[in-house]
Each structure stands twice: as structure tokens, then as C-alpha cells.
Amino acid sequence: MLDLKLEDIDGILVRYNVALEKEMTPDEAAEELYPKDELIYPIAKSIYEGEEEDVVDGLKAAIAAGKKPIDLINDALMIGMGVVSKLYDDGIIFLPNVMMSADAMLNGIEFCKSQTTEVPEPKGTVVCHVAEGDVHDIGKNIVAALLRAAGYDVTDLGRDVPVDEVIEAVVKDKPILLTGTALMTTTMYAFKEINDKLLEKGLKLPFACGGGAVNQDFVAQYDLGVYGEEASDAVKIADAILASGNDIEKLRAEFHKH
Hints:
This protein folds into 2 domains: about 5-115, Methionine synthase domain (Methyltransferase, Methionine Synthase (B12-binding Domains), Chain A, domain 1, Orthogonal Bundle), CATH 1.10.1240.10; about 125-255, Rossmann fold. The protein is about 55% helix and about 10% strand. It is built from 12 helices and 5 strands. The chain has helices spanning about 5-15, 25-35, 40-50, 50-65, 70-90, 95-115, 140-150, 165-175, 190-200, 215-220, 235-245, 250-255, and strands at about 125-130, 155, 175-180, 205-210, 225. The chain has a 5-stranded parallel beta sheet, sandwiched between helices. The longest helix has 21 residues, at about 70-90.
């Protein structure tokens, strides 16, 4: 049995940069961020807790009180996920928590869609893939889940995706962003080939790349590349494109470490 003293635990928390301000627990930190609306509060809290059934129960109560299902996507589900994103960015909760919350939110979105004939307006489309020859798709799956939870339509091409299939998807779906992940150094060079073929077709969209084999210096070598160190960076890059356009140099200035 591992015998840890309180001071040892405190040291671990500081080491991994998860020490909380005011000595708050994650639940207490979340409580300070929840909306005060009595109908929205339980939905946001259930998303933070990753409780899919409770999210739906909260949505049913809000709809019964007169809220429009389509409005609840932005006014409740996105708000709850915003709490989760804030806590994750601050190092208070971790990726497994985010994934549970994302699943709960996506389930809530599907419920809202089932309660109305209105179609929610997506923020934009993002194409995601794992480099040709690479079968390690955990990172890509996290990127896709976080993007969907943030309100983006995602075309998930899967793993070991041929270069030409990536190009076809970009031509067909006209995404605001393309993402690629690679875990092996032998596969990441497919990104350069994708970059060149996109430019040949006059398709100058940001190409966000990450994964265990990829580093900023490599991504910066090609014209469309924007480096994402963490899965959550894909959402931040997509949001930045919506806010300020797809100027790749501006995106690099914001997301690349100098």
C-alpha cells in the first residue's frame, strides 16, 4: 500500500500545476462558474459532472418551462461546456473529465434536436484525420470530440488516411480548418504532402497538426501549418479563425511559442 502524507500530496499538486486558488476543490471552482438561472444551472452542473441522464432531465424541465430546445444548445449546453473548458484550461480538471462532459453535452444536443424541427446553426466544419500509415487515433478522437462539443461539425476521416482522401474531403466539405495527428515520425511527413497538394489546388486553409511525433519546428516548415500542442488547441484555433479570419501568420503568432 502506498503511504502518502498530506505534504506529499500537496507537492504532487504543485508539481503538476493543479494547485487551486483559495484551496478550492474542483467542484467548488465549478460552482462559482455556473449560471444563476434556476433552469440552466442544473444542466450546466450535470454537464460538468458528466451525467448524461441528468442533462436530459434538466433539458426536459427547461423545455416544459417554455425554453426552446434549439436555444438550449447555446444557452445551456454550451454554457455548461464553457465551465468545463475554463476549469481544464486552468489545470483544475483533467482530460478524462472533459471527455465525460463532452459526451454528456453531445447527448444533450441530440436530445434537443429530437425535440424540434429547427436545425442548429453550426459554427463551421472541421476535417480531422490521422496521418497515412499511422493507426494511433486516440489523440484524433479527443480532438474530434472537443470540436463537436464546442459546436463544430466534424468530418472524421479516421486513422491511416491516404493523402488524396484528405484532399477530397477538404474539396467536398469546405472546412474552416483541417487537423492532422501523427504519433510516429515515419508518418508525419504525409502532412507536408497534404500541404503541397492543397496549395496546388489553391486551397489555403489552416492545417493544424499535432501528436507525439510532431513538433512546432516541423509544422512551421510548411505554408499552411499551425502547431497544436494539446488536443484542446484545435478548438482554440477554430475559434480564432471564426473571430479573426484564417490568416495563418496571425494564427502562428497566437499559438506558436517563440
